[in-house]
Amino acid sequence: MRYGHRPKRDKRISTHLALVARAFGADEIWFDEKDQNIEEKLEGVNRTFGGGFKVKTGVNWKEALTTCKEQGWCIVHLTMYGMPLPQIVKSIRREERDMLILVGGPKVPRLFYEIADYNVSVTNQPHSEVAALAVFLDWLLEGKEFQLEFRGGRLKIIPSERGKHVEALGGGNGEPC
Amino acid sequence: MRYGHRPKRDKRISTHLALVARAFGADEIWFDEKDQNIEEKLEGVNRTFGGGFKVKTGVNWKEALTTCKEQGWCIVHLTMYGMPLPQIVKSIRREERDMLILVGGPKVPRLFYEIADYNVSVTNQPHSEVAALAVFLDWLLEGKEFQLEFRGGRLKIIPSERGKHVEALGGGNGEPC
């Protein structure tokens, strides 16, 4: 869940966050502000590249957070003030609960720090919630995001040493979107 | 080096790229378009959090790329069409040359694919150049970015399980910027 999404100013950052969540194995991303644009954008990516990733916008963050907590989810808050990822990741990997990952902009409610089971820093330097989410999920999954399969898309990228190699699947036209 | 920076549209993405490059151990970031704003922003981050990270904008990308190649630098191009990072990272770690990492937006010159010593994908799904750069550097450094020291700043963040703990250094006032 991304807190503090401002549809105009954060358009590209929020799109990158959603794409990272999808590519690195999350099932859904939630935004507090309504933003149909980002929902449609990710539906298009699913159609082209497959998978069933979901975007929910206009989510009441406080209600969602409280509900997840009450239902026993593991809450992870990514913040530059938190405990270093390498120190804490093994404990988080042992969790078998559903997981809610909180990312914010510069300012987030104090409640995030209090309600989180883990406040996690991806370095203690200022950088990017997009990068923090990607590196966190990469460590959590121990690189397994590289083997994820996204089914039902039109296109599949075939890794190449040079240039672009794209395979058309079931009715696709082979052109990258 | 970031190709295709558009100072207005890409302001936040480019700032995130620069901050990621700094936090994950690069010495410099180069942008093709002139953009004083991002130079000043990162100078401010260095003053507050330390280190000597440099931002160069208005760099002629073709000249820079050709010069690096002629001087024998290792050129890495991050692209969703490239070879998977886990397959290729060991070879790249063995390189002892200076390294230029190329990141683009959706479209980059064909030359990037041809001139690169390594075209590297951080998953073959569309996501974010910010995330790709962070995950690439994290794998390249095998997590050593978590031990980097940034000297000469006003503030140092002390990792905490809850809340924010910031130490003022030499004349700082202890307030996060």
Assembly annotation: homodimer
CATH-level-2 architecture of chain A: 3-Layer(aba) Sandwich
CATH-assigned fold name of chain A: Alpha/beta knot
CATH class descriptor name of chain A = Alpha Beta
Please write out the topology:
Two copies of one chain form a homodimer.
Chain A (H helix, E strand, L loop, with lengths): L10 H13 L4 E3 L5 H14 L4 E3 L4 H10 L3 E11 H10 L4 E4 L7 H6 L2 E4 L7 H12 L14 E3 L8 E3 L9
Parallel strand pairs in A: 1-2, 3-4, 3-5
Antiparallel strand pairs in A: 6-7
Helix pairs in contact in A: 1-6
Verbal overview:
The structure is a homodimer of 177-residue chains. With 177 residues, chain A is α/β, with parallel strands linked by helices. Chain A has one domain: Alpha/beta knot (3-Layer(aba) Sandwich), CATH 3.40.1280.10. Helices cover 37% and strands 18% of the residues of chain A. The first copy, chain A, is built from six helices and seven strands, in the order H-E-H-E-H-E-H-E-H-E-H-E-E. Chain A has helices at residues 11-23, 36-49, 61-70, 85-94, 110-115, 129-140; strands at 28-30, 54-56, 74-84, 99-102, 118-121, 155-157, 166-168. In chain A, the strands form three sheets. In chain A, strands 4-3-5 form a three-stranded parallel β-sheet. A two-stranded parallel sheet of chain A has the order 1-2. In chain A, strands 6-7 form a two-stranded antiparallel ribbon. In chain A, strand 6 and strand 7 form a beta hairpin. In chain A, helix 1 runs parallel beside helix 6. Chain A is globular. The interface between A and B is large, with 57 and 56 residues.
